[in-house]
Amino acid sequence: ATKNTSRPDVDLSYNIDNVDIMKAYDAFYGMQKLAPIAKFLDGRFSSTLKMKGNLDESMTPEMMSFSGDGLFAVIKATLHDFEPLKAIQKETGIALFDKIEVLQAKSQFSINKGRIAVKPFDIKHKDIIMHITGSHGIDNSLDYDILTEIPSKLLNKQAATYKQSVAWQLL
User: Fold this and answer.
1) For the residues of 45-114, what is the DSSP string, one character each?
2) 121-125, Cβ contacts within 8 angstroms, sequence gap of 24 or more
3) Which of 16, 74, 89, 120 suits a disulfide with 133, CB 3.0-4.6 Å?
4) pLDDT in tens, 71-93
5) Spatial contact of 49 and 14, defined as CB atoms under 8 Å apart
6) Mapping DSSP to helix (H, G, I), strand (E, B) and coil, where does residue 168 land?
7) Claim: this prediction has a pTM higher than 0.85
């Protein structure tokens, strides 16, 4: 039982399976804060979460007070209109970054003091492998690294020339 009624404790856990990503994003305020990338995903996902935190006097979650752990698993989805991928496409000239098909991608995450830390996971799209890790805040801040393995056959002429130049410098 909560001893402080002006700032009640809350324990939350869920286990959801095979849910439409866009519908969940539109329906649940928490998902907009915990998984903002869902705004750019069409498809289905499953997730588990256990977290603890506080509510304020109006019973609104105090997001900075929450801590917990979970798993987010994309069953099948398309990532589209995502600005970081548009920037990669512009720099590399690879049209494959316009839409990314995501199949069976899983990532564990933890929540602490308003930050959601995502453990490393991989996405393979056609011949490209992306290794993703980082965190985001409920304040909409982003701190992610995406290490991308792109076969040279996909690079435009300018990028291929740059790659060859860097290789010579390393020798």
Assistant:
1) EEEEEEEEEEE-TTS-EEEEEEEEEEEEEEEEEEEES-HHHHHHHHHH--GGGSEEEEEEEEEEEEEETT
2) 125/96, 125/100, 125/101
3) 120
4) 999 999 999 888 877 887 787 77
5) yes
6) helix
7) no
